[in-house]
Amino acid sequence: MGKLSRAKGAAWEREVANRVRAALGGENTRIRRMWQDQQQHGNADVFVPGFHLEAKVGKLTNPRAALRQAEDDMRKEGLIAIAVCKDNSPGGGVPAFETVTMRFDDFLELFAALVAQTGPHVVGARGE
């Protein structure tokens, strides 16, 4: 991997960490990019308690491969593997395509916990 690709990946990892932290109110300093551990196999790109986040950016990312990498890299049981991918913007003012990929059973577990905590109404519905 070239120097520019590594820099682009590091910038995306920082952005993911910052956006997750902001979504949680900006106070959680435990959410961070794991730059100091990048040389060690098995560490998440972004540390979020309870999760293993693998961040990928490029021309056309492969979310399934990124999720498999997150699952393969997990050293602890009980973490939820998540791939956060960003495809390059095609240009012309079109934003980059960003996705989150996880196992459906993990999604159901998180969704059930969210509904149990907030009630059956639609959480974060667009337009509200």
* Averaged pLDDT: 83
Order the strands across the largest sheet as they lie in space.
1-2-3-4-5
H/E series, N to C?
Answer: HEEEHEEH
Shape: globular
Helix content range: 25-40%
Per CATH, which architecture? 3-Layer(aba) Sandwich
Number of strands: 5
Structural class: alpha+beta
Helical stretch count?
Answer: 3
Account of the protein in words:
With 128 residues, this protein is α+β, with helices and mostly antiparallel strands. It has a single domain (3-103), classed as Trna Endonuclease, Chain: A, domain 1 (3-Layer(aba) Sandwich). The chain has helices at residues 3-23, 63-73, 104-118; strands spanning 32-33, 46-48, 51-58, 80-87, 97-101. A hairpin with a 2-residue loop joins strand 2 and strand 3 (51-58). The longest helix has 21 residues, at 3-23. The protein is globular and about 45 Å long.
Please specify the SSE layout and strand pairing:
Blueprint: H1 3-23, E1 32-33, E2 46-48, E3 51-58, H2 63-73, E4 80-87, E5 97-101, H3 104-118
Parallel strand pairs: 3-4
Antiparallel strand pairs: 1-2, 2-3, 4-5
Protein name: Holliday junction resolvase
Organism: marine sediment metagenome
